[in-house]
Design goal:
Elements lengths: L1 H18 L15 E3 L6 H7 L4 H7 L13 E3 L23 E2 L16 E2 L16 E3 L2 E3 L2 E3 L2 E4 L5 E3 L4 E7 L7 E6 L4 E11 L6 E2 L4 E5 L9 E8 L2 E3 L9
Length: 250
């Protein structure tokens, strides 16, 4: 009797794994989504396939040309033509991009199909930034009042020290650009720029080299600003990206 029970237990253990089947739930993709924010590891091709689009049409809609480089934190418009980013004075050298990590070619075959999707975004060259000021984000990256908002607003008292988010060279320090008030732009490695606007006073000049965390300005509300805050932008070349994708978590 004991032997029979032992054999029954062994047979039960052997049969159960064969009967068990793992069910993987499909990933839900909202096909009606209007705007997509690029994540690390995305390619233009993979995004277009996910939303049932042609990668060339998606690139054209977002003013992206071959080799179709995209950046973490960039907003891609899926259903309509993307608005042009607001102008800030970047040096001409930004046109020589450093970001394209190329491990293959995205050209098409004679049937117009993609040969490879290996043009990845520049997550390998992510520059980690520190917060230029400490305060709540009062206005996020994206659209605001029907217009593009190419950075974030951080609420802080008038005169708060503004620190460089990373080491780099000051390529602009002036008040001549309409709307931004006293504005500072710093060029970092890997074709990245950070911009600091509405300052009460700029404490650095064009051509200065600054260290990460160095005080470069004091916050104010110069230009088109309803109250004291820092408007902070991050750009990969001329392309605005979400600063929260690069700032340290807090």
């Amino acid at each position: 009797m004991a032997m029979a029970l032992r054999l029954l237990c062994i047979l039960t253990v052997l049969v159960l794994p064969a009967c068990y089947k793992t069910v993987i739930s499909p990933v839900h993709v909202n096909k009606n989504k209007a705007v997509y924010q690029v994540r690390s590891g995305d390619t233009l091709y993979s995004i277009s396939q996910r939303y049932g689009m042609d990668y060339r049409a998606l690139g054209k809609r977002n003013h992206i040309r071959y080799p179709y480089a995209i950046h973490t934190g960039q907003r891609l418009y899926l259903r309509r033509v993307a608005p042009r980013p607001s102008y800030i004075p970047l040096p001409e050298k930004h046109k020589k991009t450093v970001h394209n990590r190329r491990t293959g070619d995205k050209r098409t075959d004679r049937h117009g199909r993609m040969k490879s999707s290996r043009h990845t975004i520049s997550h390998r060259h992510m520059v980690r930034l520190i917060w230029p000021v400490h305060g709540p984000v009062t206005s996020g990256f994206g659209r605001r009042h029907g217009r593009p908002h190419d950075g974030i607003d951080i609420g802080v008292p008038e005169g708060t020290p503004v620190r460089a988010a990373a080491a780099g060279e000051v390529v602009y320090s002036s008040h001549r650009l309409t709307g931004y008030g006293n504005l500072i732009i710093i060029r970092h490695t890997h074709d990245m720029f950070t911009a600091y606007a509405h300052n009460q006073i700029n404490l650095v000049r064009k051509g200065d080299h600054v260290k990460r965390g160095e005080i470069i300005a004091r916050t104010g509300h110069t230009g088109h600003a309803s109250g004291p805050h820092l408007h902070f932008e991050v750009r990969r070349g001329p392309t605005p990206v979400n600063p929260l994708a690069y700032l340290s978590k807090r």
